[in-house]
Structure formats: structure tokens, C-alpha cells
Write a structure and sequence with these properties.
- The complex is a heterodimer of chains A (about 240) and B (about 110).
- With about 240 residues, chain A is α+β, with helices and mostly antiparallel strands.
- Chain A has 2 domains: about 5-105, Ubiquitin-like (UB roll) (Roll), CATH 3.10.20.30; about 105-235, Alpha-helical ferredoxin (Fumarate Reductase Iron-sulfur Protein, Chain B, domain 2, Orthogonal Bundle).
- In chain A, about 35% of the residues lie in helices and about 15% in strands.
- Chain A contains 10 helices and 7 strands.
- Chain A has a 5-stranded mixed β-sheet. A two-stranded antiparallel sheet of chain A has the order 6-7.
- In chain A, helix 3 packs parallel to helix 7 (about 170-180) and helix 7 runs antiparallel to helix 8 (about 190-195).
- The longest helix of chain A has 17 residues, at about 220-235.
- The radius of gyration of chain A is 20 Å and the shape is elongated.
- The N and C termini of chain A lie far apart (about 60 Å).
- The relative contact order of chain A is 0.12.
- By secondary structure, chain B is an all-alpha fold.
- Chain B has a single domain, classed as 3 helical TM bundles of succinate and fumarate reductases (Up-down Bundle).
- Chain B is about 85% helix and about 0% strand.
- Chain B contains 4 helices and no strands.
- Classes of the chains: A alpha+beta (about 240), B mainly alpha (about 110).
- The structure holds iron/sulfur cluster (2 copies) and FE2/S2 (inorganic) cluster.
- The site of one iron/sulfur cluster has 14 residues of chain A, from helix 9 and helix 10.
- Chain B: It is found in: Membrane.
- Chain B: Membrane-anchoring subunit of succinate dehydrogenase (SDH).
- Chain B: InterPro entries: SQR/QFR_C/D, SuccDH_FuR_B_TM-su.
Chain lengths: ~240, ~110
């Protein structure tokens, strides 16, 4: 680490949903991430500061917070790239209950993964022969594109439709469902399509692409959801699902 | 919004697109030919074709608009889907009644 060159005023959310921002002065260093700043405050100024992280390298998806109004993975967000007028404001992710300080309660987010049938349902057993999967088939490509989600919740926090309709499954759960309906090894296709076609399902999406704009993995949940709408309509017209 | 409502909303929109083109063409024709109200009525009154065309248009527009209204009431009005559906159904029924009345006024002899 290089020498501290100057300081930065950073406002961190403190308390529950009825909390408020508190401002701290922290040393500004080269190549500092937003997570580094939050950690510095906890180690040097206030050990009661609560926040969540694990891998620090953009793999686990646990460190997302609202940084100057936008959802971001804080471990891979350089402070110098997001500073506005010399200020940094960090809050918990939006569209989720606040546990304390910078830690949002991600339970509703993951409950919706379950509601969208986000679990792989094997169609074979371990005694069956391994099924060869061609990597360049269109369905496999679609599944592979969507599968890199790290469950960070940035898209969910950025989605207006989630804010307006608390029952909306949201971009991440639907993107996961899209990945699975394109997996030829999965056996839960029809009931998954029924789940994402119900009230609160994929048809609520307004296609305004905030999710795609904010996904740190550069995934495109909007496109996945458009694909689900198409499959859902085919299944509805054929009478395979009723909604 | 579920698959059934989506089907009816997008389906009604798709059917209305060509009808809107016809509707606009009729307006342009009537204005460019400087048709009077009496001349227009003489063409529409007793016409089964115009009655069916605009009758279907009213039904489709009412379906489309009431499903959209239900969404707006849910998302921006914070109504539960049941009450939003009830309000939107009343709105849709009113659109049908007013629209069919207007169609009747120009096609009934
Ligand atoms: S495109 Fe759909 S899922 Fe993505 S932010 Fe917009 S409404 Fe939400
Ligand atoms: S789709 Fe992107 S933004 Fe959404 S949870 Fe997955 S990785 Fe995060
Ligand atoms: S700490 Fe794991 S993604 Fe940021």
C-alpha cells in the first residue's frame, strides 16, 4: 500500500431502516476499494459497524451495497471511480429490509429464487450414463450466459418493478430460472414455467434494463426474462400451463 | 400480471395494430375528401362491416386498457391484485359501454 495522500469524507448508513447517515474521515489511498474504506472505518473508528463480505475478489456476491445511490459490489469498486464531488455515501442494498448498518436482509431475495424453482432438478440418477452436452448448442449457450450470476442482489436493488411490487420475483431469480429451463438435463421445466408465469412472475418486467446496467457480472437478466416470456406464452397457448 | 393477462394484453395490442392503420386511413380519407357528418353517416348507417370493425375495436381497446390500468393500480397505486382487478374491470366495462354506444350511434340506421 502506498502512503496516504489525502483524506476522504465518507457517509455510512448506521442503524436499521430508521437509521441515518454518519460521516467519517478516512485516509485515501491508491487502488482503494469501497470495501477497503468500510473495513478501515470498522477497524479504526467504530468496531460496531456491521457489513457483509467474504471473498473480496468478486466471487461470493455478499458485499453489494448502495454506493452513491447505485448498487455495486464494493470489493471490486474502486473509490476513485465512484467518488462524486469528493464524497462517498454508502448505504445497504435497496429493496430489502435493513438488518443493521450496511447489512441488508437478503432473505426475500433468496426466497424468490426458491419460488422461481431456482434449484436444478436432476432427470437422471448417478447410475445412469453421463449425458454428453454440446457446449455450442443454442440452449446450452443461453444457459451458460445466464449461469455466471453470483447472487449479489445488485440487479434486484436496482429494479423499479421490485420496488413497486414486492411480490415480483425480480431479475436474478428469473435469470436463474432461464438458465435452468435451457438446461436439457433438468426435469422441472413445466412446473418452473408455471411458477414464473403466475402473478409476480416474468410478465411484470418492464424491460427497462436497470438490472443489466448494474449487474457487476455484465449479465443480461432483461434478455433472460424476455426469453422466459416467450417460453411462457408458448406453454400457455399449448395449454401446458394455466395462469 | 400473469401469463393469462399478458396473453390478452399483448394479443389485443397485436390485433389492434392493423385496425389502427385502417382507422387512421379512414380519418385521412374523410378529411381529405371533406366529407360532412351527414355524408359520413350515410356511409356508416346500416353498415354491418363498419359496425363489426369498430365494435371489435372497442372490445379490444377495452381489454387492453383495463389490463394496463390494473397494472398501474398495482404498481403505482399500491392496490392488491384483487382490488386492482375489480376497479380495472369496472373501468373496462365502462369503456365497452361507452364505446359500443358510440359505435351504435354511427352504424344503427
Ligand atoms: S428489465 Fe425487468 S427485471 Fe430488469 S430492472 Fe427492469 S423491470 Fe426489473
Ligand atoms: S444477475 Fe448480476 S446483479 Fe443480479 S444477482 Fe446475479 S450477478 Fe448480481
Ligand atoms: S466480497 Fe465476495 S464478491 Fe465482494
Amino acid at each position: 500500500m502506498s502512503e496516504a495522500v489525502s483524506t476522504l469524507k465518507v457517509s455510512l448508513w448506521r442503524g436499521g431502516s430508521d437509521g441515518r447517515f454518519k460521516t467519517y474521515t478516512v485516509p485515501l489511498k491508491a487502488n482503494q476499494t469501497v470495501l477497503d474504506i468500510v473495513t478501515w472505518v470498522q477497524r479504526h473508528l467504530d468496531p460496531t459497524l456491521s457489513y457483509r463480505f467474504a471473498c473480496r475478489v468478486g466471487m461470493c456476491g455478499s458485499c453489494a451495497m448502495t454506493v452513491n445511490g447505485r448498487p455495486r459490489w464494493t470489493c471490486r469498486t474502486h473509490v476513485t471511480k465512484v467518488i462524486q464531488n469528493g464524497m462517498l455515501e454508502v448505504a445497504p442494498l435497496a429493496n430489502m429490509p435493513v438488518i443493521k448498518d450496511l447489512a441488508a436482509d437478503m432473505r426475500p431475495f433468496f426466497e424468490k429464487w426458491v419460488a422461481a424453482h431456482g434449484t436444478f432438478a436432476a432427470s437422471k440418477t448417478r447410475t445412469d450414463a453421463i449425458e454428453p452436452i454440446k457446449p455450442d448448442e443454442p440452449a446450452r449457450r443461453a444457459a451458460d450466459e445466464a449461469i455466471e450470476c453470483i447472487n449479489c442482489g445488485a440487479c434486484y436493488a436496482a429494479c423499479d418493478t421490485v420496488r413497486w411490487n414486492p411480490d415480483y420475483l425480480g431479475p436474478a431469480a428469473l435469470n436463474r430460472a432461464w438458465s435452468l429451463v435451457n438446461d436439457v438435463r433438468d426435469s422441472d421445466r413445466t412446473s418452473r414455467l408455471a411458477a414464473i408465469s403466475a402473478e409476480g412472475g416474468c410478465h411484470n418486467c418492464h424491460s427497462h434494463q436497470s438490472c443489466q446496467e448494474h449487474c457487476p457480472q455484465s449479465l443480461n437478466p432483461t434478455r433472460s426474462i424476455a426469453g422466459l416470456k416467450r417460453l411462457s406464452m408458448q406453454a400457455f397457448v399449448r395449454g401446458e400451463i394455466n395462469a | 400480471m400473469n401469463a393469462r393477462l399478458y396473453f390478452w394484453q399483448r394479443g389485443s395490442a397485436a390485433l389492434m395494430v392493423p385496425m389502427i392503420v385502417v382507422h387512421l386511413a379512414v380519418i385521412f380519407y374523410a378529411t381529405s375528401q371533406r366529407l360532412t357528418a351527414a355524408e359520413i353517416l350515410s356511409r356508416t348507417q346500416g353498415s354491418l362491416a363498419w359496425g363489426l370493425f369498430y365494435g371489435a375495436f372497442v372490445l379490444l381497446a377495452s381489454i387492453h386498457a383495463s389490463i394496463g390500468t390494473r397494472n398501474i393500480l398495482c404498481e403505482w397505486g399500491r392496490l392488491k391484485s384483487g382490488s386492482a382487478g375489480a376497479v380495472a374491470s369496472v373501468f373496462g366495462a365502462a369503456l365497452i359501454a361507452l364505446g359500443l354506444r358510440a359505435v351504435a350511434a354511427v352504424v344503427l340506421p
